Amino acid sequence: MNVRRRISTAALAGTTALGLVTLSACSGTSSAGEDEGGGRLDVVASFYPMQYLAEQIGGDHVEVTTLTRPGVEPHDLELQPRQASELRRADYILYLKGVQPAVDEAIAQSGVEHVVDAATLTKLENHGTDVGHDHGHEGEEHADEEHAGEEHAGEEHDADHAGEDGAGEEHGTEAGGDPHIWLDPVKYAEVARGVGDSLAKADPDRAADYRKNTEALVGKLKALDTEFADGLRNTTTRTFITAHSAFGYLAERYGLDQHGIAGIGPESEPSPARIKELQSVAEQEKVTTVFFETLASDRTAKALAQDTGMRTDVLDPLEGITDKSRGDDYIAVMETNLAALQKALGAK
């Protein structure tokens, strides 16, 4: 998850000279801090999975700006001084610590009262390039424990201040936790509940609407979870190979084996020994497909597929929505991911 360049302290200090410079947001909404917001809460989201939560839960009561433009690989984001200015003027910031160190640093210096780290709203796991279903949830038992705890998630987040003001010490990513929590609908729903609670605290006059919107989103995510559980229950193989090891939580949730060419960060390069190991996995487990993604290079994935006679397909880690995305929002892209997995795994 290394970012090539980080915003400097000097750049942050110089932002006051820029005035109210607007940020071109990927959501198409106006910049944080503008008076024409009609009393809406000015929300800054770090990248698409956080933007989606803020928009779905905030509804008409929020103006959402995202720091990561369409087509930009979030891990490589280089903040501009005007974006640091956006952060300073926000009413509420939603981010995921550990994905974008440049953003983490800028947020720490923003001075904004309502800052929520999504990593504090669920439990992170340590995942490497390989994640097996033996470490996760099998078949119809895939989500019982998680679902059983959801009804009380909001109360727990209230007690923990919904991830604000340093409440992330318990789950933070400093210990090496995998941050790709949004690719597990159950974990994403847990995060959504925490976001709903925190928005209600930041804007108590509209708390009822935020909670209503949260329940609507959680309902969609529960339905998506059911689609995945049913759609992946019976397959010819349980193993898939992907360019970027982003799908560890998804693999655990639905009893699959993920083998990543690269590690948690998509910029890492595999060794010749790793390529040889993947060739062996493909042969032994009857893997049919090497998955790649739209925001990172597909060169290694296609080379591996050519060497082993496998086909390639897209499995989207949903770090951003572009014109090339197979869907226009989180739910739609996740459903196309399900279809791609069903085809690759030989769903019956």
Rg for CA atoms = 20 Å
Task: Specify the CATH architecture of the domain at 41-126 and 178-218.
Answer: 3-Layer(aba) Sandwich
- The sequence of SSEs as H and E is HEHEHEHEEHHHHEHEHEHEH
- In round numbers, the mean pLDDT is 81
Assign a percent range to the helix content: 25-40%
Tell me how many strands there are: 9
Output the number of helix runs. 12
The CATH superfamily of the domain at 41-126 and 178-218 turns out to be Nitrogenase molybdenum iron protein domain
How would you sum up the global shape?
globular
Roughly what fraction of the amino acids lie in strands?
A: 5-15%
CATH topology annotation of the domain at 41-126 and 178-218? Rossmann fold
Structure description:
The two termini are 36 Å apart. The protein has a 5-stranded mixed beta sheet, sandwiched between helices. It is of the alpha/beta class and 348 residues long. Helix content is 39%, strand content 10%. Among the domains are: 41-126 and 178-218, Nitrogenase molybdenum iron protein domain (Rossmann fold); 233-345, Nitrogenase molybdenum iron protein domain (Rossmann fold). α6 crosses α7 and α8 (207-231) packs parallel to α12. The protein has 12 helices and 9 strands. β1 (41-45), α2 (48-58) and β2 form a beta-alpha-beta unit. The chain is globular and about 60 Å long.
